[in-house]
Amino acid sequence: MLWVAIAIAGLVATAAAVALAGRRVLFLYRLATSGQPAPERIEYARRHAGAEVRAQLVEVFGQRKLLKWTPSGTAHFFVMWAFFILASVYLEAYGALVQGAVTGTPDFHIPLIGTWPVLGFLQDFIAVAALIGLIAFAVIRVKNSPKKLGRGSRFSGSHLGGAWLILFMIFNVIWTMFLFRGAAVNTGNFPYRSGAFASQAVAKILPDSEGLEATGLLLHIGVMLVFLVIVVNSKHLHIFTAPLNVLFSRRPDGLGPAQPMRSDGKVLDFEEADPETDVFGRGKIADTSWKGFLDFYTCTECGRCQSQCPAWNTGKPLSPKMLILDQRDHAFAVAPYLLAGEKEKESLSQDVLALLDKPLVGEDGVIHPDVLWSCTNCGACVEQCPVDIEHIDHILDMRRYQVMIESSFPSEAGVMLKNLENKGNPWGMSEMKRADWIEELDFEVTLVDEKMPEDVEYLFWVGCAGALEDRAKKTTKAVAELLHIAGVKFGVLGPMEACSGDPARRLGMEFLFSMLAQQNVETLNEAGVKKIVATCPHCFNTLANEYPQLGGHYEVVHHTQLLARLVEEGRLTPITPIEEKITYHDPCFLGRHNKVYAQPRDIMAKVPGVTTQEMHRCGERGFCCGAGGARMWMEERIGKRINTERVDEALTTDPDTVSTACPFCLVMLGDAINEKKNAGQAKESIEVVDVAQLLIKSVKQG
Ligand code: SF4
Ligand code: SF4
């Protein structure tokens, strides 16, 4: 009778919990699919099936990103694998539940492998490892408590109570498992004779009692059922949604080209688009695509993104984590409206209706404009996010609505837009000036007018800064000279080159981006350009990754990639020693966005005399200079200036030179260093140079 009663209780509780969880899952599904379609995500996953399978193995099962944070990553690794392996214990528990009711003896084992000591060992080992993981999590949470560290805590803003509840529930899963298994050892119903070391040890301190075994079994199942209901109603939903979010994110890590604007799943054609009927970016939560909703559901509130964000770290209100969480909370709050039929809408409470009037972005909106405009598109958040949430997509879509529909953006950026529109460059200089730098060289440079000459291998994409900004022009001339010395034939477009459109796109002015990009693609295609070398990582990223969206397909390299190859092949030989200590700053659009970390360092390593020292934040955790995301064209009024923060960090390495590989980084870091020099906080001799300038110095003087 005991086992029949236990089985009835267990199965009724299971049915109730599954019904509750199922209802919630259905709600989440309906909410996500009430958003904009995103067929491109399914198409992308289909076309990159191999990469997607690899991503599931590496990111989800291998926990690649989490393991970069060693203590918490290791703890999470074991807790996550406990979920998989302990599913076999639940199989045994339900087997015992049913078998006990049918035969009166709950001595169930999984067919074929169910008495294998290795399985018993694995179950106990992972449970103990998860228990240690829980202790590690608790210590990490206490040490990083927002109460102690304030903004400096990555958990600041997260729902802390919910996180502790989850830890408590996992703890309950583990101790009830050992109670049930230990009692089963004593009653002779345990499937393993050896291997399950912890269960067998627990058995020694438990009485031999069938009642205890039944209680342990029921508690173990009950805890899991309560946990299931909590999970689907909490941030721990990521247990189920993370594999999906990884599947539908862009590979390799959610970074990649800015996406074209879509309305109802189709790319917007600006000649036909109608702001009245088409979706222009995101002005309300209902404009979010289902992938955006999946991002909301998947955020674990771990705060890794926040801890890396240059805006957050310099006192600005933007936290990429809160950007996601605030939208998520709003989406849940207005869900009754989004999911209601026309008639039901009329009977909704005033609270829900009032929320509907809340703009997505605005002084009283879900997202404050200062949050939206603080982003440099540096990608540190996306790079670090263990579940591949694509914060930049959210930011860009909201900016698009603000710029194109509301005409609401920092007024300084308006000058840049006007200059781009009228002159094709952000400074508003005459296009004729684009070739002025050539006159300062002592060799001829091919100006491509209509067709690339047969013997010219590369189109050197100079970029607006490279052509018009004095400091960046030095890089341009250095690269041209190096290519000339190495015998690489190249040509330039001169006045025919227009801005790649990156600043317009990153600001949210997609229409202007599309105009500039189409013009450039036409010029490049008509000239028959196949290979491009660019010095500006923003141009490099746009030409290589975003122009294919408009029919521009080229083999694009950054100058550091080409120069490193030329040095490797012996076509450039740095021989004059440069006895300097150099620290290298990774440009975000070269490093994180395009994974070019090694080549600039390879070049410096080949220059005799150079010693290098990395900054604390380098490589994939490099800290932005503050210029990306069109921030170069906006005032930085809140908090510490990002370029000053970066230079402070550079100065801790006591460098003679700060090197980089981007004209915008060059300007931002140069400005900050000059301020430091003026304040007597940096030695007068410190210079900020491009890696190409170092190389030419060593190659030429030799
Ligand atoms: S892209 Fe960079 S600046 Fe923008 S939210 Fe992410 S980390 Fe912050
Ligand atoms: S967005 Fe990603 S990194 Fe940021 S808190 Fe959420 S899960 Fe963590």
UniProtKB/TrEMBL annotation:
Top-level taxon of the source organism: Bacteria
Annotated coiled-coil segments of the chain: none
InterPro entries in the cross-refs: 4Fe4S_Fe-S-bd (IPR017896), 4Fe4S_Fe_S_CS (IPR017900), Cys_rich_dom (IPR004017), HdrC_iron-sulfur_subunit (IPR051460), Helical_ferredxn (IPR009051)
Keywords from the named record: 4Fe-4S, Iron, Iron-sulfur, Membrane, Metal-binding, Oxidoreductase, Transmembrane, Transmembrane helix
A Pfam match: Fer4_9
Cited Gene3D superfamilies: Alpha-helical ferredoxin, Transmembrane di-heme cytochromes, Chain C
Transmembrane segments: 75-97, 118-140, 160-180
Annotated 4Fe-4S ferredoxin-type domain residues: 290-320, 365-395
Record carries keyword Ribonucleoprotein: no
PANTHER family named in the record: IRON-SULFUR-BINDING OXIDOREDUCTASE FADF-RELATED, IRON-SULFUR-BINDING OXIDOREDUCTASE FADF-RELATED-RELATED
Stated name of the protein: 4Fe-4S dicluster domain-containing protein
Organism: Microbispora triticiradicis
